[in-house]
Amino acid sequence: MTTELELRPFRWDNLLAFMALLGLMRAVEAARPDWRVRTFWRRRGGRGPWVPVVVSEEIASGEELAAEAERGVLELAAVHRFGDRQDVDFTTEEYRLVASQAGGWRAELVAALASDIVLRDPKKRTVQPTPLCTMFGQGHQHFLERISLHEAVAKGVRMPLERRQDGAELLRTALCEDWESQRDPNFGGLRLDPKEDRRYAYQFADPTSAAGKIGTVPGANRLAA
């Protein structure tokens, strides 16, 4: 019997939600390829907002989907390692070496971050990151650090791919519950959510203070990474 699960918290106009949906499909595919999970978008009630629907003959509940997705996340995260490199600031020669040594999921990750041909700084011969890379060290925010698999809390900020006991629960709440109730100001998001990407001059408070921290959805960033 085919099961359909609506992911109502995933807004159609939110880049974080779209990337999290892709991450969910990839993670479940990695953990349970036999499930043959598919997804499509439909309008709630025929004329409401667009929401993604996950389809499978094997899924019994959102909890089961989240548990298997968490297994896939940790399997995929194994390739998210860049040593001491924190940002996508490789020279073309360095990135060409990284790309030449990559295969499988690692190769897809490397291709999603930059190219060894397009230059950001012709003098320094550094590569141009793709638009998916949203931070470059400003405010001590580093993109490669955010998407790397961490064994422990780094610098007091919880990272998307940190190993944690409640990983499956983070995914379940992101899939099934309202995002605004989950926002965590101490979580290091990827700044793919429009609410997170607010420029300093347009904020009502200093973004480094508790009052100015908007917070992000941990489970959604975990899938997106």
Descriptive overview:
It is a single chain. This protein is α+β, with helices and mostly antiparallel strands. It has seven helices and five strands. The protein has helices at residues 15-31, 62-77, 92-100, 105-113, 143-147, 167-176, 218-224; strands at residues 3-6, 38-43, 50-56, 114-121, 126-129. The strands form two sheets. Strands 1-3-2 form a three-stranded antiparallel β-sheet, with no helix packed on it. Strands 4-5 form a two-stranded antiparallel ribbon. Helix 1 packs across helix 2 and helix 1 (15-31) packs across helix 7. The chain is globular, with a radius of gyration of 18 Å. The chain starts with a strand and ends with a helix.
* Order of neighbouring strands in the sheet with most strands: 1-3-2
Number of helices: 7
Helix content: 25-40%
Oligomer: single chain
Order of helices and strands: EHEEHHHEEHHH
Q: Which consecutive residue ranges, at least 5 long each, have pLDDT under 50?
A: none
Mean pLDDT: 87
Gyration radius, rounded:
18 Å
Q: In percent terms, what proportion of residues is strand?
A: 5-15%
Biggest sheet layout: 3 strands, antiparallel
Shape: globular
Structural classification: alpha+beta
Distance between the amino and carboxyl termini: 32 Å
Could you give the count of β-strands? Answer: 5
